[in-house]
Every structure is written in structure tokens, then in C-alpha cells.
Amino acid sequence: QHVDNKWVSSSSEIIAFRKALLNPVTANEFQHFVSLKGDLLPNGVVFWQEVQKYKDLCHSHCGDAAVQKKITAIIDCFINSAIPPALQIDIPTEQAKKILEHRKELGPYIFREAQMTIFALLFKFWPKFCKFRSKLGSDKILLPLEEKRGPKMRKKEG
């Protein structure tokens, strides 16, 4: 759909993308696909999935200690990593600071803004991924991605 010179996605496309991120096989293929588009994008896929698991944990009424442990794990991995850069996902530093300030609040919404930012960023690559996947067939998708990624990864390791 085209509205005021901006492309607006249909809700069915957004729902399909959300389902894809929740499907381990499709999410893995998409993660490989976006790894060719930007260094932090694959982390965004995992971050989105981990935040979903965190929200599920909150809604399962498990103990506060488990919820706090998950918050800490997500922050240590993606928001304030010991491995440089500290911010391992593509979100504004203000969002990261806000998460760090509210890390003791145990509700399901601590990562909401960051998750929405990541979702919107990743969603831009969804149509290209769908087109790429439709040309190949799902059983053959990872091979060309690995081949494209190979030289890039060897350069980093070397």
C-alpha cells in the first residue's frame, strides 16, 4: 500500500513476519540473510526472540528471581555487553540507557521500545528475504547464504 509517499505494510505481512521470527527454522534462515546486510542485524533477530521468551516468562507467573535473571541475561548480552561494542543491537543509546535505568522493574514491558525498534528495522528486509527464498526453495536457502557469508567471515577471523 502506498500512503503519502510512504509504503505501509499490511497487517497480514506484519503477522507473517512475526510468525517467521517465532519459527526457529525460518528465523535462522532470516538471521543468515540479514547477516549479509549489517553486522548487528543477526543479533537483532536473537534479541527479538529472547524478549519474546522474557515476556512469556513474565506471563507464566514464575518467580521474580527467574524474571530478574532473564532481564540481566538480555542486558548483558545485547544492551551492556562485556564484548565491545557494549550495545550489540541497532537501537538508539537513549533506549539502551532507559532499559538500564529500569532493569529492576519486573514487568513484561522493559524491552518494549527496543523490541519494536528492532522489529521495524528487521521488517525492512522481510520482503527481500521472501523474494530470495521464493526463488530457491526452503531446502536450499542456507547454502547460498553461507557461500556469500564465507569470505566476509574469513576476513574477520584473519
TrEMBL record:
GO function terms (MF aspect): G-protein alpha-subunit binding
A Pfam family recorded for this sequence: RGS
Name under which the protein is recorded: Regulator of G-protein signaling 22
Top-level taxon of the source organism: Eukaryota
Residue ranges of domain RGS in the record: 16-122
A GO BP annotation: regulation of signal transduction
Gene3D superfamilies: Regulator of G-protein Signalling 4, domain 2 (1.10.167.10)
One term under GO cellular component: nucleus
Organism name: Mesitornis unicolor
